[in-house]
Amino acid sequence: MPLPLVASTHLVHTIDGAHLLVRRAGTRYFPGWLSCVAGHVEDGECPRTALVREVEEEIGVRLVPDELAFRVVVHRRLPDRTYVDFFFVAGRLPHEPMIREPDKISELVWARPEDLRSEIVPYVAAALASEDGFVAFSEA
Description:
5-stranded mixed sheet, Nucleoside Triphosphate Pyrophosphohydrolase, mainly beta, 9 strands, single chain, 4-stranded antiparallel sheet
């Protein structure tokens, strides 16, 4: 029987080489690890629209879908499902992020991936750390 296919979307925002990351809370998947602001694409949404929704829900920042630049897609298999993860870059945030869902995020962190690699969810670290910043296609 085929595994369910799930799409997710991730925010990449970088200032002076440091990425905006969140410490994951309330999850069984890498609890306490760092990741990008991210979430599932809901039925009827495209990845950019889903990311705008997730970013506003999680860190209170309202983005404009057309201002998000696609950077990488990661395909990964878990024991119970397959994921297609879309990563988009926001060149600027209209205001400072703040934690709006403390049940999902325990901390906002600005960090260079190489400094905290052991704390970043592995597929996210791989997406952030390619030689030129991003890879065109990745399988994890």
